[in-house]
Amino acid sequence: MPDTLDNPDDLVRAVEACLFAAEEPLTREQISAHLGDAEVKDALAALQEQYAKRGINLVERGKRWAFQTAPDLAHILRREKDQLRRLSRAATEVLAIIAYHEPVSRAEIEAIRGVQTSGGTLDVLMEAGWVRVAGRREVPGRPVIYATTAEFLAHFGLESRKDLPGLVELKASGLLDPVDDAYEDLMEQRSAENAEPELEPEEAQPDEAEALADEFDAEMLEKPDESA
């Protein structure tokens, strides 16, 4: 590591320069590697605080760091009129299920929803940049599994999936509808059978998945044609 980065202030400046020059968001490990394996955790925290009240903010999305326009100023920079797009009910349900249960296969999505899911619904979510193919499950047939993306986190202002609304929050906001008994029975049966050990049962919260679908379905999702 260069001698100039021994000074904390110089390290902060170096991290700032590294992020400005990057073509895409960087993980902490990538930033550290660019700067001779320097420990950059404190420098990132200092930069985030410095930019908190400025026109540009330093944000972490999916464990990747980047500068972005302050949310309250974004409308000033838009050159084109926003095109309002509304996801279908099926798409919002699938997106919610993936967000709370990922990684999840198409068959697992269908088991949770109780109906077939068309390939077109998943294509819409992948075209929006919110869902990605996350590999294949190591079971007979090796089905494709899906997960959310960093763009999903950025669009909804989430630092990580841990920031998804919880059961208590959804009940308090009035967004949580009663879950169908058959759906509840299905999830209990799947848990008892432990059919898919690679999933993370502690994160699989069906009430929250259905509620998030309702939340997404209730709002207009904005996606600008062209942004500055």
Automatic annotation (TrEMBL):
Coiled coil: none annotated. Keywords: Cell cycle, Cell division, Chromosome partition, Cytoplasm. InterPro entries: ScpB_csome_segregation (IPR005234), WH-like_DNA-bd_sf (IPR036388), WH_DNA-bd_sf (IPR036390). The keyword Cytoplasm applies. The keyword Flavoprotein does not apply. This is SMC-Scp complex subunit ScpB. The lineage of its organism: Bacteria, Pseudomonadati, Pseudomonadota, Alphaproteobacteria, Sphingomonadales.
